[in-house]
Amino acid sequence: MAKKASVEMLTRLQAINDEMEFYMELFSIPESKEEDDESEYLLDSEEKPKKKKLEKTADTEEDKTHRVEVKKNKITAKYMGRKSKASTDPHKVERKKLKKEKQLKKKLKTSTAMAIKQEQQRSKLIEHKPLEVKKEKKPAPMFNAEGKIVFSKVQIDESDVQKKGIETDTKKLLKKVIDNKKQLAELKESGDMEKYAEIKKKQAWEKALAKTAGQKVRDDPELLSKKLIQRKKQIKKSKENWKERQQKLEHQQSQRQKERTANLKERAQKKKNTKLKRMAKKGRVIPGF
């Protein structure tokens, strides 16, 4: 960097020197005075020495043409120098272009960011009234014949009311099925066929509606009994597994306890032996040491 600066300074000084020489030749300025008056430089005189003004001579056509030619030569020299400095490598030119584009983009970004900031500050100063949002009217709740709220728009039947939960206990379901079968058998035996047919029809409708709603109908006593037996087996197996696990844990605990006691005994014996060895070294008579 320092070398570059020194080279630039030298070139500038050379250019200034050339220009001064040109002007000196143009106006025919002598390099030194022929007769030096010492009286001008004396301090006794009250009056300050006056600088001699150079009289301008009328420029001839030859001088003018010479001056124009010199200027032209200077301009051409400058142009050629710039041309020689300019890189011929296309990659360098592309890099310069990219650099300029990046700088321009950066400037644009900063300017846009500043504009956005100013806009935000202005908006903060201005008091904005909140927009009135229209409140949507909530639909009124629908009620069925029994006076209960219906959440769905379409209701299949007035008697169709959602239940709180579906029974999942197999024991209860099996009991329900058996009781139902007993009731139907009693009605059949008594001869009340109308009531028997009515209950059968009602149960068939309930089953169909449950299936359409996506519920699993569990009214087969054989399947339910199988499920109960399976569940009992699972409970029995889980109990056996739990017992085995407990036994394993107890065994592991006892093993650890035994190991701990053995380690403690060994440590105590080691301490005792070290003490006895020290005492034997000091001169005490201890059997075995």
Q: Largest sheet, if any? A: 2 strands, antiparallel
Broad shape: elongated
Q: Tell me how many strands there are.
A: 2
Biggest sheet, spatial arrangement of strands: 1-2
Provide the low-confidence segments as ranges.
155-162
Mean of residue pLDDT values: 76
Number of helices: 6
Order of helices and strands: HHHEEHHH
Strand fraction equals under 5%
Radius of gyration (Å): 59 Å
Could you tell me how far the N terminus lies from the C terminus, measured between alpha carbons in angstroms?
Answer: 87 Å
User: Pairing-aware structural class of the strands and helices?
Assistant: mainly alpha
Helix % is 55-70%
Model description:
The chain is mainly alpha-helical and 289 residues long. Helices cover 65% and strands 1% of the residues. It has 6 helices and 2 strands. The protein has helices at 2-26, 61-85, 90-125, 170-190, 193-212, 221-282, and strands at residues 142-143, 149-150. Helix 4 runs antiparallel to helix 5 (193-212) and helix 4 packs antiparallel against helix 6. The chain is elongated and about 155 Å long.
Layout of helices and strands, plus pairs?
Layout lengths: L1 H25 L34 H25 L4 H36 L16 E2 L5 E2 L19 H21 L2 H20 L8 H62 L7
Antiparallel strand pairs: 1-2
Helix pairs in contact: 4-5, 4-6
Q: What tags apply to this protein structure?
A:
289 residues; mainly alpha; two-stranded antiparallel ribbon; 6 helices; 65% helix; 1% strand
